[in-house]
Amino acid sequence: MRHPIVLVLTLLLASVTNPLPAWAKGKTVLITLTCDGLARPIEIVDTVALGFQFGPWGAAFLDASSVVVAKHRTRLRLCEVAFYVQFSADREAQLAYVLYYGYHPAAASSPGYICLPGRGEPWYSLNVGTILRSGRDGRWQVAARAWEAEVMRPALARAGHANRAS
């Protein structure tokens, strides 16, 4: 009688401590940008932009070498960036992660910034249900150059938003 309980507890512990492979987390199928000054959201469906490294789990949107910064004092144009993920082929995509991106529209060489919603802010519960980034939530951080160059700036340029005056 005792062995089935031990077996069940062992399996439960193994399922909790064993990380899922990347493919089990779902595939990002859409990124939407809802930006200040735009009449409607920008939809990103480019395969490079939707790759695992740029999705919520890969976190290639953050510059890992930079430290968390205080909220920027200069005026940034803000976009809400939403990641939609399809967790299995028989399910529709669902909103899985949201962050804020701030950038200087007239200064392409100036870095952009990412803010992950913090405790008590909209989207925090959704985000930590997807992945928890301790010490990074609720703070501004430098955006990764590759993410800006391959995802954000091209999408904003296609929408004619990148170079408009603030």
State the gist of this model:
The chain is of the alpha+beta class.
The helix fraction, in percent, is 10-25%
User: Strand tally, please?
Assistant: 6
Q: What order do the SSEs take from the amino end to the carboxyl end, as H and E?
A: HEEEEEHEH
- Given helix and strand content, the structural type is alpha+beta
Q: How far apart lie the N and C ends?
A: 71 Å
Main beta-sheet annotation: 6 strands, antiparallel
Order of the strands making up the biggest sheet? 2-1-3-4-5-6
* Helical segment count: 3
Alpha carbon gyration radius: 18 Å
Number of domains: 1
User: Low-confidence parts, pLDDT < 50 over ≥5 residues?
Assistant: 6-23
Mean pLDDT: 80
**Strand percentage:** 15-25%
Shape: globular
Structure description:
- This protein is of the alpha+beta class.
- It has one domain.
- The protein contains three helices and six strands.
- The protein has helices spanning 2-17, 124-130, 145-158, and strands spanning 27-35, 42-44, 77-86, 94-103, 113-115, 140-142.
- It has a six-stranded antiparallel sheet with strand order 2-1-3-4-5-6.
